[in-house]
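Support request, please re-run this one:
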Amino acid sequence: MFTREHTRCVKIADRTIGGGHPILIQSMTNTRTEDVEATVSQILRLEKAGCELIRCTAATMEGAEALSEIKKRIHIPLIADIHFDYRLAIAAIEHGADKIRINPGNIGSDDRVRAVVDAAKERGIPIRVGVNSGSLEKEILNRYGGVTAQGLVESALEKCRRIESMNYDNLVVSIKSSDVLMCADAYERFAEQSDYPLHVGITEAGTLYSGNIKSAIGLSLILSKGIGDTIRVSLTGDPLEEIRSAKLILRTLGLRKGGIEVVSCPTCGRTRIDLISLAAQVEEMVRDYPLEIKVAVMGCVVNGPGEAREADIGIAGGLKEGLLIRHGEVIRKVPEEKILETLKQELDNWQE
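Re-run finished. Output below.
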């Protein structure tokens, strides 16, 4: 079985991916990069949420030049995303990008790609070779009769060989498709043929609801095979949600520890409190606690203590009252309106 230990190590500023290093979570800003204040503000919020790599578009020369000021004010590696104009890639590198993301196919001639490669080589920064289902070459589409996993892999390998021929192999690769099964298949095929570290994600996954479902399925299929060194959950919405979802996916797969895990029952006719609202409030409340425990939120006092036995701490609602539970044992009964407050007090004073 392929494992993350098999990929080569690549340094991105002060972080290392590949070679069995922890999988890093990344996101992409949706501000105009030229707006330094807005971009820095968003990145700092993402850092606080747990973002470990951040990508900004360098769609204009002004945006590429803004990277130097942005980099001074953030604390995580900065990746520049470039399409079409090789001069923007060079400018982004010159203004401090810790890594660049390009598709060599839309950068143009070998001379232009070589100019970008030489700039990256001079500063020792990695290049992420990005391929997606919307950018496949016509000859590959014709050969396979459309977009296929084989075609995506062939395109990615060809682009890597193109840069390797320029005497540079400090590369990270991404192969993305909005087709979940095709995407997973492509990553597995690529991992069998190359040891470059992989950035994984389901592109154009959709809104918060559909995007999370597609990303969770796709990333689980890929990561569970030992494939993937960085991830992004691509959502149409606030990038903060991408970080929260990525952390939960990694924790659920046992690939990351830390943070409070909240479990809650699905509600039924026995429920006598507003469990839906309560569970949401608990999930929001525990987000910043530096504890590695499980918290259960149960809807009734009939099965609550039993169902919460595997949790470190739990609350169960009843008719105008609630129970505070530790490892399956009821330790306190409180009025309904005090349930959330009581849980917070317990967490504030938590000791194993």
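The longest helix spans residues 149-164. The first strand starts at residue 10 and ends at 12.
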